[in-house]
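Dear colleagues,

As part of the handover before I leave the project, I'm documenting each prediction I ran so the next person doesn't have to rerun anything. This entry is a single chain, and its sequence is reproduced below.
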Amino acid sequence: MMPKEMNGLQGIFAVQKVQGIQYATQNAVPGIAVYHEKLFEYEGKEYRQWIINKSKLASGISRGIKLPVLKSGAKVLYLGASSGTTVSHVSDIVGDKGLVYAIEFAPRPTRDLIKLANHRENIVPILADARRPEEYTHIVDAVDMLYADVAQPNQSELFVLNAEAFLKTAGTGFIAIKTRSISQVDRPGDVFNNEVEYMEKNGFETVRTVDISKIHRQHRVFLGIWK
């Protein structure tokens, strides 16, 4: 078999019989790769390899995370967008009826995001500090999903702040926690559990947590619903 849409993951495909490729999204901009990923065709459609070593979202999916909210037409707020590797796959998934608000603090990767948005009209690149959601309240609407990949000591706090500002009730929150950015001395499992407790006390209901540290060093993933 070739690309097959995964259960509970609209627009995300498991791939068989294509050497070196495990997951893919259908390319919204045929002929253009974003980060040197492989492109391939099947039944008249072009797909992009989604490399789990370069995407914490893909890594979470490989460990069984389900994201029914991430689908065509969804609005996503992405904190810590960097140059847009994972953002580009989210763009593929939400399609031309959806939007990805991509927040990045550093000017250099933001320039890459702007170049990416020139080809993908559903990406809104925003140079801003994710710790200060008031900087972009005039740009970002209410969203269905909040995604965070920001290696800061207060990463769970900024996640909650942005949920309070933008995430719809019963919306989905996904955060990749880098435990060593929080504490260099405490056990990673203890650090992560403390962060989960903080998020649960401040509006999230835990759906699932997974350890992706074998793929992304020092990282664990939290998936929750905003109450």
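The chain has two domains: 4-51, 56-226. The helical segments are 56-62, 85-94, 107-119, 155-166, 188-201.

All the best with the project,
I.
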